[in-house]
Design a protein that fits this description.
Layout: E1 8-9, E2 14-17, H1 23-30, H2 47-58, E3 63-69, E4 75-85, E5 88-95, H3 104-118, E6 124-129, H4 134-142, E7 146-157, E8 160-170, H5 171-183
Parallel strand pairs: 5-6
Antiparallel strand pairs: 1-2, 2-3, 3-4, 4-5, 6-8, 7-8
C-alpha cells in the first residue's frame, strides 16, 4: 500500500486522507438518490454498503483519495486521483448536496489539481462525466478542462447504458491559468 496522501488545506477546507471512519458521514452523501443520479453506481441502500465502499477507497490502491472536510473534520465529500499510466491520472469528486453552490467543489478539486501537477508531476489529468451531469460538466469547464471526447454507450450504470464525456487538463494549461489568476 502506498503512503497516505498529504493533507491539503485551502481557505475554507482541509483535504485529508480518507479513512474508514468517514463512512457514516459519507453515507448521507452516497445514499442520496438525487446526488447519486450521475454516479457510476446506485445510491447505497445501507451503512454496511457505504462502509465497504469507503474502505475500498481508503485503501489507496490504486486510488489516492482525500476526504473533503471543514473545521469540524467531518467528511462532506471526497476527491480522488487514479493514475492510469505514468504522467496521467483520472480525477473524480463527490460533494454532499448540502454543500453545493458554495464553491467547495471547485476549491477542493483545485487543491488536488495543484498537488497532482506540482508535487506528483502529472502532465495530464482527465475526468469522465455523464453528458447530462450539467453541474459537474460546468465545474470542469470552469476549472479549465477541455472537452476532448464523447464516448457513446460507454457505461452501464444503475440508469442503464450511458454516454460519457471526457475532459482533459494539461499541467501547462493549469500553470498558465494559475499565473493569470495571481496577476488579477
Amino acid at each position: 500500500m502506498a503512503a497516505p496522501p498529504p493533507v491539503l488545506t485551502t481557505e475554507r477546507l482541509v483535504l485529508r486522507p480518507l479513512v474508514e471512519d468517514d463512512a457514516e458521514a459519507l453515507h448521507l452523501v452516497l445514499s442520496d438518490r438525487a446526488l447519486m443520479t450521475w454516479w457510476s453506481s446506485a445510491p447505497h441502500r445501507d451503512l454496511a454498503e457505504t462502509q465497504a465502499y469507503v474502505a475500498g477507497n481508503a485503501a489507496q490502491d490504486p486510488w489516492i483519495t482525500w476526504a473533503i472536510t471543514r473545521e469540524d473534520d467531518v467528511a462532506i465529500g471526497w476527491v480522488v486521483l487514479n493514475e492510469k499510466r505514468e504522467g496521467v491520472a483520472e480525477i473524480g469528486y463527490i460533494l454532499g448536496r448540502d454543500h453545493w453552490g458554495q464553491g467547495f467543489a471547485g476549491e477542493a478539486v483545485s487543491a488536488v489539481i495543484d498537488h497532482a501537477f506540482e508535487s506528483l508531476g502529472y502532465r495530464r489529468l482527465y475526468a469522465d462525466t455523464d453528458p447530462d451531469n450539467e453541474a459537474s460538466n460546468r465545474l470542469l469547464k470552469f476549472l479549465g478542462f477541455r472537452r476532448e471526447g464523447y464516448l457513446r454507450e460507454e457505461w452501464e450504470t444503475h440508469l442503464g447504458v450511458r454516454d460519457s464525456v471526457i475532459w482533459g487538463l494539461l499541467a501547462r494549461e493549469w500553470g498558465k491559468r494559475r499565473a493569470s489568476d495571481e496577476e488579477e
